[in-house]
Every structure is written in C-alpha cells, then in structure tokens.
Amino acid sequence: MRFTLLPLTRILGLVGLLTCSGTALAAAELAIGMSTPLESGPVALGQNTRLGVESLFDSVNRAGGVHGRQLRLLALDDGYEPNKAAVNMRHLIEEKKVLAVIGNVGTPTAVVSAPIANETRTILMGAVTGAGLLRKTPPERYIFNYRASYAEETAAMIDGLLGIGIKPKEIAFFTQNDGYGDSGYAGSVAALKSRGFTETDSLAHGRYTRNTTHVEGALATILDAEVEPRAIIMVGAYPACAAFIREARKDLPQALFLNVSFVGSAALAKALGKDGEGVIVTQVTPALHDPMPGVKAYLEALRQYRADAKPDFLSLEGYLAARLLVEGIRRSTLGGNPAEDRESLVNTLENLRDFDLGIGTPVSFGKTDHQASHKVWPTRLVQGEFQPLAWSQLR
Q1: Which of 70, 94, 180, 316 has the fewest C-beta atoms lying within 10 Å of its C-beta?
Q2: Can you tell me the distance from the alpha carbon of 169 to that of 167, in angstroms, rounded to the nearest whole number?
Q3: What are the DSSP calls for 81-99, one per residue?
C-alpha cells in the first residue's frame, strides 16, 4: 500500500476549506433553546410543546428559513425539576449561544429560568405556565408570554361556577404544593374576593407533592370540608389530577372537576379513560378543530412535520408561541453577535402590534405588556374528546 504525502500548503488549504464550511453551516442556522420534561416528570407536556415548536420551525425552514437561515431547536430534558432547568439554561445560553429560549414547561422551573434569562439578557419566550412570577408590573425586559395567566383562567372558572348557581362555599381546591399550585390558588382566591366573598380561608384546600401521585391526604382534606364541594378547582399535572379525580368521584359523584390548561388535556384524557367524562379544562388556545386560520395552519404544519402525531392543545400552544418568536426574528436585524442580536429581538418584540396569529383576536406586545393573549377557552371532556363549553350548559 502506497501513501502519498501532501504538500503543507495543500494540507493547510484543506483545513481552511473545512473550517470555512463549518462556519458557513453554523451561520446558516439560528439556534433556539428549550428546557422541558422530555424523559422524566410530566413528559407529555414537554414532548407536545416541543412538537408544536418544531412543527412551526419545520414549516418555516421548508419555506427557506428566516433571512436565509434555518431554525434549529436545541431541547434538553429537565424532568420538571428546577436544578436541572438551571443547568440547562446556562448550557444553552452560555455554551450553545442560543438566540432565545422558548416553551420551557412549568412554574417550578420558571422560578430559576426567568432570573437566568434576565441575568444573561436572553429572551425566555412562551413558557408553558400562567404564573404571576413571569408577569410582573412593569414586565421584565427579557420575559415574553403567549398565554393567558392562571389568574385569568381561574377567574373564568369562578365566574362560570357562580353563574350557574354554585355558591363560593361549595368550591374546593386541589393544588400542587409549589409555586405552580400557589399561583393558581392565589388567582382563584383573588377572583372570589373581587366578587365579594371574603371567607376564602374557610374553603377546603388539598395539596400534593410535585412529581408524585400521592393524593390521598389532599382528598381527605377536601372530604372533611364543612360544606360538601360541588366544584373542585385543580392546579396540578396530569398524573396527580387523574389519580385524584378517579378517587374523588367515588365519594363526590356529582362534583365538577375543573383543571387549568397546564394539566395537559390529551394526557389527562388518556390517563382517565372512561372516568374522564365531564371533566373541564380551561384552554389558552382555540379548540383543535376550530376553523380559525391559526388552527388550520397548525394542523397543516403538524401533518407535514409528523403525519402520525395527534393534534394537542399544548403542541398548538408551542406552535403559536413559536410563530410570535419567528415574527420577531423576521422583523429584527441580526448581525451574528449574540448579545446585540438578543437586544435587537427584544426591541422588535416590544413594538409588535396587532399581529394576526389567526386565533380570533390580534395580539400585541409593548414595553408595559409582555403577554400576547389574555383569552381563555373553556372545554369539557365528552366521549374522550375535549369540546368547547358554554358555562350555561352546566346548569
């Protein structure tokens, strides 16, 4: 076997060519980060959100990308645990140099992700949580939300329940024992107080530990209530909420069970099976078969990206949040310097006015408002599918 020795100038030329090719490849991409439960914890929430973001990115990439650059999502598993989320955020921002982070799932992880985003001056867009900590007044410069808040979701529940004749004393709460549960409970209490009921401390409030299905103690607390609950507002993840509903229905067969959107509608329906009939979930997107243009575009993008994937409220939410981010990128001037590009993107988003997401109402951002949508869509599980709900139907 003969070996040919290449001249040094030829070797250096080849190295230069490879280096330039690698640089060109990197320049042809825009990296966006995500930290979410993908392998442990409530994985359905993270996987579906990622699916929605990726389906939007795929449709944009097939059309040529943004400014000629392809979008690439770097999604890391955090198991719905704050410590892992913090490590992921540092890695994505400081080592991978992502332009922004999108679709992180959960309030407990947002507790650590939001400060890191602010410290590193990196946008955290469309986190899947309605917690108030991401909705400060005035808003934090690098935090942008797509969805309605938990306070808005639970206020819609309270108005709906009172409107059909349920008394405040007949309402109980089942919540996750952390910032997520606290946020939803606080929104409910605020809504009741604003409507004239001040004895909120007397209402039964059962709690459970995150990433468990140990709901027995919470159920016992609610069953011990002085007034039997006719409605239970739930602020939890789908495994625990499904376990609670299944057990609670044995003692409270006529009670209404109301969940905020974060529960994960498809996963909750699957976990409950036939026990899910009549369960209510407030949504932050339109119904999946709504004829609105934004929903139609999502369904087509999902079909093109993964024809076998079942449409889901969470993947629709991820898709819509990604549309907002991409529109901001389209309108920004990006020069390749991560710090400068991030500031350009913030400035652009804060000037996004009356953008038509195709969900019935144009959305906007501004220096004093970093939440695009404030709308809540109630739904009810009927024969395994979530259908739009008018509260008057529950009379």
Answers
A1: 94
A2: 5
A3: -HHHHHHHHHIIIIIS--S
Type and span of the H or E element at 100? strand 100-102
Instruction: Pinpoint the alpha helices (H) of 121-264.
Output: 150-163, 179-194, 216-223, 238-251
Instruction: In whole angstroms, give the CA distance from residue 167 to residue 260.
Output: 20
Distance CA 206, CA 216 (A): 9
> pTM for this one?
0.90
Question: Distance between CA 83 and CA 2 in Å, rounded?
Answer: 56
pLDDT digits (tens, 9 = 90+) for 334-389: 988 999 999 999 999 999 999 999 999 999 999 999 999 999 999 999 999 999 99
Tens of pLDDT, residues 44-54: 999 999 999 99
Q: Check if 11-148+290-364 and 150-283+378-394 are the same fold.
A: yes
Token pair 């609105």 in the structure block, residue: 292
Q: Which has the closest alpha carbon to 262: 148, 370, 106?
A: 106
For residue 35, the surrounding DSSP H or E stretch is strand 29-36
Domain ranges of the chain: 11-148+290-364, 150-283+378-394
Pairwise CA distance, residues 254 & 11, whole Å: 79
Q: Which CATH superfamily does the domain covering 150-283+378-394 fall into?
A: Response regulator (3.40.50.2300)
**Domain 11-148+290-364 is found in CATH 3.40.50.2300:** yes
Query: Cα(289)–Cα(111) distance, rounded to whole angstroms?
Result: 34
Strand 280-283 to 70-77 pairing: unpaired
Rounded Cα distance between 106 and 36, Å, is 8
